[in-house]
Design goal:
The protein has helices at about 5-10, 20-35, 40-45, 50-60, 70-80, and strands at about 85-90, 95, 100, 105-115, 115-120, 135. The chain has about 140 residues and is α+β, with helices and mostly antiparallel strands. The protein is globular and about 45 Å long. InterPro entries: Arylamine_N-AcTrfase, Arylamine_NAT_domain_sf, Papain-like_cys_pep_sf.
Length: about 140
């Protein structure tokens, strides 16, 4: 990870010394405004590689977007480099037509802990369902 190259890709040029909520929110918003959810690789016969360097090259250097696995994994790497307490979570997506959640884990998102408080960050859902700011993770509360 060359953090300045990543910051160039997402057009982020603000301070980033503190691994705080304000900085997380700013980086997250720059990330989702600059890196689209896209599935073009699948349609072009390109392999989906989950190696961090391959994802970095595709999204940062080739200026592409990616699946949730790719965009969230890249954001994970950047935030980890900046000193955030972060982990990757598996998730089941809600299927409106089925009025329920998928049986299998089909999505990843990130959990970031700041001053003992857990937040969910998801840069890879895209469309109308894209979250725009970190959400505090509160058990049993729909957000």
């Amino acid at each position: 990870m060359k953090i300045q190259e990543y910051f160039g890709r997402i057009a982020y040029n603000k301070p980033h010394k503190d691994a705080d909520l304000q900085t997380l929110t700013a980086i997250f918003q720059h990330h989702i405004h600059s890196i689209p959810f896209e599935n073009l690789s699948m349609h072009c016969g390109e392999p989906i590689e989950l190696d961090l360097q391959a994802i970095y090259n595709k999204i940062v250097r080739k200026k592409r977007g990616g699946w949730c696995l790719e965009t969230n994994y890249l954001l994970f790497w950047a935030l980890q480099e900046l000193g955030y307490d972060i982990c990757i979570l598996g998730a089941n997506s809600y299927e409106p037509a089925e009025k329920g959640y998928t049986a299998q884990i089909n999505h990843i998102l990130l959990k970031v802990v700041i001053k003992g408080e857990p937040y969910i960050v998801d840069a890879g859902f895209g469309g109308a369902y894209q979250m725009w700011q970190p959400l505090m993770l509160i058990s049993g509360k729909d957000q």
